[in-house]
Amino acid sequence: MQLLKDRIRRDGKVKEGNVLKVDSFLNHQMDTKLFREIGKEFKRRFEGEEINKILTIEASGIGIACVVAESFDVPVVFAKKTQTKNIAADVYKSRVESFTHGRVYDIIVSQEFLGPKDKVLLIDDFLANGKALEGLADLVRLAGATLVGAGVVIEKGFQPGGDAIRAKGIHLESLAIVESMDEKTGEITFRE
Amino acid sequence: MQLLKDRIRRDGKVKEGNVLKVDSFLNHQMDTKLFREIGKEFKRRFEGEEINKILTIEASGIGIACVVAESFDVPVVFAKKTQTKNIAADVYKSRVESFTHGRVYDIIVSQEFLGPKDKVLLIDDFLANGKALEGLADLVRLAGATLVGAGVVIEKGFQPGGDAIRAKGIHLESLAIVESMDEKTGEITFRE
């Protein structure tokens, strides 16, 4: 998606340790006009697929998921992160290992809002090691719902998440795949 | 807002301890069609006000804020909750006491995304004790930005937050004000 790549090149900041900061438009300040275009692009890429629910994960996935959901005309459910030991009985639960934050947490979704009739598109802002998407896919499986695919805004192509998700046979659409970044020059190369 | 009140009466569940569960459409599963109508209603209620940024707080405020922002054609910034002791230097910070969760946490926003030129509308899903809104208003003040007003979807009128916010002279618009709830009958009475 050219508009997105241009925006990443213009406003993204490459930091030490393969960090790409896009918090001026994607995950702290949020450009909802761009989100609207992102929604149209996902709609185009999943054209013909039957989708009746979008599943995302708190916190920064929620904004994009909600605007994207308007293009699909479906509700959003977001999985909650929790470190509480006492999880309520009426939820589906999966475990996610976060490399970025160096911790493990549970993600939960109420059984009321995910079930066998749901045809689910996963939406998230970033894909790096893929653990969050895998956790969401696990929730879909536990609920007996159908996983239609996954849409992410930015995939770090030099990290293993994208390949792992594709190897599972999941239809993954990444709107911008970063092939490499140079923290000295700030240069960002996208996969064609 | 009649559409919202009807929806709360239909799908809201009154639980012990003055809890109103609206997680089927507002803060776990999210009805983005309803959010769009909520956006139009806030736009109408703040008609004529100059607003160039919406500020909300993670996590459940983000979805509504993003859809509402489309009606105002402005970006959203969300304050992050943190319990980290080492807060970065380039953020504004306030402290919020959560009665619901019985804990105190810091909320932060990058100084890059809130400043003297910003005319800010606060958006949140719930208003009970008002501590989250007060924290957000504090961030606006610290940034030297202008606080135009606050829009909340559901105000619990029997808790002190709404009155406290109005007493500070903040232009508060609540789309549904719950005057009382009966956990035995499930009956919900709205303020006229």
Which SSEs are present, and which pair or pack?
2 copies of one chain form a homodimer.
Chain A lengths: L1 H10 L1 E3 L3 E3 L7 E2 L1 H14 L7 E5 L2 H13 L3 E7 L8 E8 L4 E8 L8 E9 L3 H12 L3 E11 L4 H7 L4 E10 L6 E3 L2
Which terms summarize this structure?
11 strands; alpha/beta; homodimer; Rossmann fold; eight-stranded mixed beta sheet; two-stranded antiparallel ribbon; 192 residues; 5 helices
Structure description:
The structure is a homodimer of 192-residue chains. By secondary structure, chain A is an alpha/beta fold. Chain A has a single domain, classed as Rossmann fold. Helix content of chain A is 29%, strand content 36%. Chain A contains 5 helices and 11 strands. In chain A, strands 6-7-5-4-8-9-10-11 form an 8-stranded mixed β-sheet, sandwiched between helices. In chain A, α5 links the parallel β9 (146-156) and β10 (172-181). The mean pLDDT of chain A is 95. The interface between A and B is medium-sized, with 33 and 33 residues.
Question: SS-based structural class of chain A?
Answer: alpha/beta
Subunit organisation of the chains: homodimer
Helix amount of chain A: 25-40%
Name the strands of the widest sheet of chain A in spatial order: 6-7-5-4-8-9-10-11
* Uncertain segments of chain A: none
The chain pair with the largest interface is: A-B, 33 and 33 residues
Biggest sheet details of chain A? 8 strands, mixed
Q: What number of structural domains do the residues of chain A give?
A: 1
**What string gives the helices and strands of chain A in order?**
HEEEHEHEEEEHEHEE
CATH topology of chain A: Rossmann fold
